[in-house]
Amino acid sequence: MPVLGAIREGYFYAQLGLGTPPRNFSTIIDTGSTITYVPCANCAHCGAHMNKCYYSRRYAEMSSSEGWLVQDKLRFPDNGSSLDFVFGCENKETGAIFKQQVDGVLGMGNNENSFPRQLARTGLVDDVFSLCYGFPAGGTMLLGDVPVQPPLQLRYTPLVERRLHYYNVGLQGISLGQKSLGVAMGEYAQGYGAVLDSGTTFTYLPTAAFNAFLGLLNDALQGKGLHRSSGSDPQFNDVCWRGAPHDFKALDKVFPTGSITFAGGASVALTPQRYLFMVGRGEYCLGMFDNGWQGTLLGGIIMRNVLVQYDKRHQRVGFAEADCNSIWTAPAALAPAATPQAGGPNVTAESAPAPAAADAAYCHTSSYKVKLSQATANKQAMYDACFAAKKIAVKPKIVDSKIMPNGCITMVQKVPSSAAWEAYSACEKSKTGVDNKALYEPLNSMSGPCSNYKKATAC
Prior knowledge:
This protein is an alpha+beta fold. Helix content is 15%, strand content 34%. It has helices at residues 95-99, 115-122, 185-189, 207-220, 357-360, 372-388, 418-432, and strands spanning 4-6, 11-18, 23-30, 37-39, 53-58, 64-75, 82-94, 104-107, 128-133, 139-143, 148-149, 155-158, 168-169, 171-176, 179-180, 194-196, 203-205, 227-229, 240-242, 258-262, 267-270, 276-280, 283-286, 288-290, 296-298, 306-311, 316-321, 328-329, 361-366, 397-403, 409-414, 440-442. The longest helix has 17 residues, at 372-388.
């Protein structure tokens, strides 16, 4: 399934077809939540988004969702098949949930009510899923034990059993610039422990670890010509710097790289892109925060361009460096795979070669002003119609979408080749009567979503 969103938007999300007849909803991918929920048509207090057990969820930032648990159809975006699925039908939401652009939450948490666990019980997929958040945006979600191209070598850490619904791991240590923070493993395990939380934007460390990390970072930046700043939002006490390279890829020339090491020998490189976020040209803020004694939350920023596999069959989590916007899978993704050999990689090679990235990405800036979820749903409906009419052999994939300052929508869409894009453009023209081909801009690389927007459009 395609992943949309970015750290700059505050979350990564996926489109989910729910109901009879199916309706598309945009849902935040959250391994810290166990219930999937979207607004009901008769919602008493919901933002402008989309039949019995009652549910209620409260979050740390004081937002909430409540409503009824219902059973209806879940439709898969790749092949149109559907199955029975239990999810929350909201009738009230508050705080950030009420204000956010997306419709709801896709509960990927560690219990029997979650989206992946319900899928596994049907026998359609193994009890495995993978998240790969792209940089600077987009990504891929894999349901089941799915082969990908190019092949990846995963390194695993055991899941730590706790009574909570989180994916807890043993965090052994963090280093920065070849120096360890010097924090004992027990510090990371306090509170709710060390948790992989895809629905949290940033990373939250115990006080001792946060202070040590900031101290090492300040030492490493001495003499680099940077100036401390307070960031763009005065209501937050952010730690920021001005005078850094504007290109995110050049940050490692100024900011140090470290690593996060887990029990069992797995580790994730802690590059500047995984602990900093941009607030202005050449200005970056620290994407790590002091979490007191409550625990350690490893949010989405840490896992940008890392494939994270949640393998409940073997009670483990795997990590592999990956270009998350260039991962391609077999068309029949929803099929149980053979159990891997012990110690071997759980993600293997696909027989077909990966498409050339230069031919695969196209940017479309549109002049319509609607909700982001509706815009992507409209585009997905066009993909489905062209595919059903056999006008295209492969559906395009939306790898990023955003709302521009004036409310217009911009999308980055990906296909296997330029020829495939020609076929889709012709189909779109035949169904709408409008030739939108001039509004699509090829991208030479996936280094940034629509770095040059079409000047001729209303946006």
